[in-house]
Specification:
Layout lengths: L22 H14 L7 E2 L15 E6 L4 E5 L5 E2 L4 H13 L1 H7 L13 H4 L11 H8 L7 H16 L7 H8 L3 H12 L7 H12 L2 E2 L1 H12 L14 H14 L5 H7 L4 E3 L4 E6 L3 E6 L2 E2 L6 H13 L11 H17 L1
Antiparallel strand pairs: 1-9, 2-3, 2-8, 4-5, 6-7, 7-8
Helix pairs in contact: 1-13, 2-3, 2-6, 2-11, 5-8, 5-9, 6-9, 6-10, 8-9
The protein binds glutamic acid.
Glutamic acid (GLU) binds next to loops.
Keywords: Acetylation, Hydrolase
EC number: 3.5.1.2
InterPro entries: Beta-lactam/transpept-like, Glutaminase
Amino acid sequence: MVLDPTVWLDVPQEVSTGTLPGWERVDELVREAHARYADEVSGEVADYIPVLAAVDPELFGLAVIEVGGGIHDAGDALHAFSIQSISKMFVYALAIQEHGHERVREIVGVNNTGLAFNSVVALELNDGHPRNPMVNAGAIATTALMPGATAVEQWERVREGLSAFAGRPLSLDGEVYASEAGSNERNRALGWLLRSYGRLAGDPDEIVDVYTRQCALSVTAHDLAVMGATLADGGVNPVTGERVVSADVCRDTLAVVAASGLYERSGDWLFEIGLPAKSGVSGGLVAVSPGKGAVAGFSPRLDEAGNSIRSQMAIGHLSRSLGLNLFASAPAPAHAGEARVSSASEGERS
Ligand code: GLU
């Protein structure tokens, strides 16, 4: 099922004014979006990681964090779940912060694969060069860039870095880690394939283990919104005030996320919602509005590509009602008259 945009067509498409409406209005709109999709039951919970299949599919949280620090949590916004693929965007940001734009770009590309997130074919078709850091092969190659003399140190760097984005110490969900570590043959195969092409330094099994841990970090929709809002705020966490990465890193990361954040549905998402966003198979989704803030959802039922359906609906709704769509504009008042004249003269000519 490709996302059905008719679910929110009655919501007026507000155009960005450069800032969010006041706190009260944002809060009202967050509550409205949460209530509107609360009864939506389409999609299936991920089951390829055994422990994820056991989650309560009814959970539904929504959160907005403003760059000014304003907080809006609705429903199960404080329910903990494993971050999964959403970790990829933050580890990528840490990698660019550490190694710079050019070097990371040489190692991992920036174009969409058009194929599933765990595709082996995508790697084979590209001479073993991972096409982007939002699919598993590229994410494993990105995790390998984390500084540290050992895998333990690299893992610590990932955990600390993602904790700085979240503004609180994040911890590993041991049950999710054990479940995934016992069933991640495909990711280990990707690690070894990267190695066979000479594109992974270090022991593939150890790097995939760090990657598996990063995916099992426990977060809430509220945390994801804080993490996303840090990328919206030029790299400064709007809740703690700590600088986590540079503004240039935020720009690079959001561009890559816009192209590939919703797997092979990234174009559909950008067309309908118009925001850089990243999803994960446990049901999380975070969309970033540069200069304004971030919206995050959590709801475990997914579409076939692995994207949370209710989170897409609620965030799509808020993209319209909060005026977040990067591509939406209206003629400036000074030009509105000219636009009318020009369309009238077009009409006269025809
Ligand atoms: N840990 C998951 C995997 O590697 C993440 C997948 C996802 O969220 O897309 O398969």
